[in-house]
Amino acid sequence: MLKPLCSLILVATLGAATASAADPAPIKILLLTGGCCHDYKTQKDILKNGLQERANVTVEQIHVNDGSTKPPLPIYGNPEYAKGYDLVIHDECAADISDPVVIQGVLKPHKIDGIPAVNLHCAMHCYRFGNFGKPVTVGADNAAWYEYLGLQSTGHGAQIPIAIHFLDPANPITKGLADWTTIHEELYNNIQILTGQALAKGTQQVPKKTKGADGTQTVTSTEDVTTVVAWTNLYTDKKTRVFSTTIGHNNETVSDPRYLDLVTRGVLWATNHLADDGTPAPGYGKAK
């Protein structure tokens, strides 16, 4: 009777090993949220749940309920904040965190350690100082964050629907994704494109107003304003993968399946778990 029991134990052990090999460890993500002008308290959970429903990832959060432009994120002064993670999502809004030493600490995991990243919406308007409203010079101290992003943006206009058009249908991040139009959203400007590779452009129809003799203003026409709204960057000679999108101000947009699909693709691409056809690499697809 012992021999069959040993055989059963061996089969069970081999089966467990096979299941383990078929289910790779999830991508470990650090999500940073907090700061000015957005409902991060809600959006952090929308993002966490949306990503975990779409891919084999685990999302851990660092969040501060602070609505200022200097949110006291505990990563500041701790250049090792991303140790043990496979990817960092920067979704903070810290427009007035301007200390170059602090900024280099935020960049250290990506610049020195080669940890990939995803940047959402207001992350493009963080960690800036000097005359950042003008094109920065590559290599200058105040260019560091923009060099990491691969694109310099400094502001936006009114909230108006954005028509999103994907530029490269062969790129694995955008392959099979359909153009769509958002609700009222913020279209970020492009001061200059540095090393970023554009994936999508967004267009707003901005009203043009004429002032009458009585002082009232009337909309007489519209002007199409178009900028890059999603792109990739290979950062430094390490070629660290960085995906960014400026879309994502309002909760309705962040919870839109089309938005979450795009961000998920960016996560998988940045961590090198996205196949050429736009599907997750084996073992990294939708949670069972």
Strand and helix map with partners:
Blueprint: H1 2-22, E1 27-35, H2 40-54, E2 57-63, E3 87-93, H3 100-111, E4 117-120, H4 144-149, E5 151-152, E6 160-166, E7 180-185, E8 192-193, E9 197-211, E10 217-235, E11 240-245, H5 251-254, H6 257-270
Parallel strand pairs: 1-2, 1-3, 3-4, 4-11
Antiparallel strand pairs: 5-8, 6-7, 6-9, 9-10, 10-11
Helix pairs in contact: 2-6
Question: What can you see in these coordinates?
Answer:
The longest helix is centred in the first third of the chain and has 21 residues, at 2-22. The protein has 288 residues and is of the alpha/beta class. Helices cover 25% and strands 29% of the residues. The strands form 2 sheets. Strands 2-1-3-4-11-10-9-6-7 form a 9-stranded mixed beta sheet. It has a two-stranded antiparallel sheet with strand order 5-8. It contains 6 helices and 11 strands. It starts with a helix and ends in an 18-residue tail after the last helix. The protein has helices spanning 2-22, 40-54, 100-111, 144-149, 251-254, 257-270; strands at 27-35, 57-63, 87-93, 117-120, 151-152, 160-166, 180-185, 192-193, 197-211, 217-235, 240-245. The protein has one domain (25-270): Class I glutamine amidotransferase (GATase) domain (Rossmann fold).
